[in-house]
Amino acid sequence: MRSLLIGFDIGSSSVKASLLDADTGAPIVSKAFPEEEMPIDAPVTGYAEQDPEMWWKYVQQASRYVIKQANVKKGELKGIGIAYQMHGLVLVDKDQNVLRSSIIWCDSRAVGIGEKAFQSLGEDYCMNNLLNSPGNFTASKLRWVIENQPEIASKIHKMMLPGDFIAMKLTGEIMTSETGLSEGIFWDFQKNGLSDSVLKNYQIDKNWMPKAVPSFSEQGKVTAEASKLTGIEVGVPVAYRAGDQPNNAFSLQVLKPGELATTAGTSGTVYGVCDTPLHDPLSRVNTFVHVNHAKEKPSYGVLLCVNGTGILNSWMRKLLGGSHINYTEMNTSARSAPIGSDGLIFLPFGNGAERILQNRQLGAHLIGLDLLKHSKGHMLRAAQEGIVSALTYGFQIMNEMGLDLKTVKAGKANMFLSPIFRSAFIHMNRVTLELYDTDGAQGAARGAGIGMGLFSNEAEAFEGLQLIETYEPNENFFEPYEELFSRWKKRLSDIEKMDL
C-alpha cells in the first residue's frame, strides 16, 4: 500500500491540489481549478474581495480530480497540507457560516487604519515588537469591519486567514498558526505570542482569535461531511498550514539563514530566511515567523512583495485578445524589442497599495510611448522589465537590511517561464537563479508529511525535489540592465512627486 499526501494551494487566481508519494518524495498528479482565473470583486476602487465558499468549491473539485486520477485506495492517504493566499480576512458566526466576502491580500481599504495605529501604538513598539507597521494587514482589515459594518462585527465568532477557513471546512475545527498570526500583525515577537496591545488598540475581542498550533502538527481530521464532498477518506488529518510565501520558500527547501526564494505569479515576491528578527525601519518589506520557527530556535522570513507583477502580464494578455493569444506567443513578440524597450517604461503598480512604496497606491503607468516607434513587442517587453525593476527596487531594500542576495530559488512557473523575465531578473539583480520542479501545493504536501512524522527529517522530505535549470548572470549584460533600472527609478520618482 502506498503512503500518499495531498497538498492544497489556495491562491487568488486558482486552487491547486497535488498528490505526493511519501515513500519516494515524487509528485504523482496535480490539478488547478478553475481553468480560467477566479474573479476578484472590486465593488469600490481599491477593494478586493473573494467568496471563501468559492475556494472551498474548487478544493472539492481539485481533490476529487487528483484522487480519481491516482486511483487512491482506502488507507493510502496519510495527511493534508494547506497553503493559502496571505493576509486575507475570513469571518464566521458560531455556526461556522461566512459573514461576508473575504477582504483579500491586495485590498487597500485599511491603509489609513494601519497608519493611525502605527502612531497610536508608537513606532518603537511596532518596530521592536511587531517588526512592521500594522499597515494594510489582516488586523487593520478586521478593524475596518468593526468600524464600518458593526452589524457584521456583532455576529463574529472567529476570524481566520484563508487557509484556516479551508482547514475548518475539512475538519470542523477552527485553528490558526504562529506564522499566520504574525502575517496578520497579531504577533508580538518580544513576547513570542499574541499581541495584547494590537487587540486593545483595534478593540478586537480576544475570543475571536483562533487557537494557534505549530505549522507542522496534526490539526484536526476530515469529517464525514467533508469526505463526501472531497473524496478524502474520513479521519485523514490536516498536518500542515502556512501562508503562500512562507510555504513557497519551504517548497524550495529554503529553511536556513541566508537562503532565498522568489515567486512571480499574480504578485511577485522575494523571501529571505534569517535567525534574527530583522526589520525595515520604513516597513517597506516585512518580517514574519517562518514555518520552522521555534522558541528555542527562532526562524524568520523577510518578505518583499510587489502586488502588480503577473497580474500586469495577465492584463496585457486580455487586452491583446485573451484566449486568442497565449503567454508563449507574448514572449516571442516581446523578444522583437531590445533590452530597455527603446525607452518605453512600465510601472506595474496597478493592483492596490504597494508596501515597497510605503502603502501608496500609484496605479500602473506606461511612460514614454512613441507612436511612430513602439510596437506591441515593445509594450510586452516593457511590462516584463517593469515588473523585474519593481522587484529589484525591493531587493535593494533587503540588501540594506543585511540580507545577502546571491543565489535565489524559484519554481519553474508563471513569469519565470519567460526567457526575457529570467534574463532581466538575474542581470538586474546580479544573482544566480535556480529553477525547481515544484509548486506551493507540492510543498504543502511535503509539509503534511513532516507534520505526520512520515519523514525522519527535513532532508528526507525533499528527496524528490528536482533542480531543473540554473542561470548564471553574464557581466556583458550588467550595464544595459543597470541603465534600464536607473531610467525606471527616475520615472518612478517623477510619478511619486506628482502624486504628492
Please characterize this protein's 3D structure.
- The chain is an alpha+beta fold and 500 residues long.
- Helices cover 37% and strands 20% of the residues.
- The chain is built from 17 helices and 22 strands.
- It has helices spanning 52-69, 111-121, 123-130, 138-148, 150-153, 162-171, 178-183, 196-202, 224-230, 244-251, 310-320, 327-334, 376-400, 419-429, 440-452, 458-461, 478-499; strands at 4-10, 15-21, 27-33, 49-50, 77-84, 90-92, 102-103, 158-160, 175-177, 187-188, 193-194, 211-213, 238-243, 260-264, 268-274, 286-289, 300-306, 345-347, 365-367, 407-411, 432-436, 467-471.
- The strands form eight sheets. It has a five-stranded mixed beta sheet. Strands 14-15-17-16 form a four-stranded antiparallel beta sheet.
- A hairpin with a 4-residue loop joins strand 10 and strand 11.
- Helix 2 (111-121) crosses helix 4 and helix 11 runs antiparallel to helix 13 (376-400).
- The longest helix has 25 residues, at 376-400.
- The protein is globular, with a radius of gyration of 22 Å.
- 52% of the residues are buried.
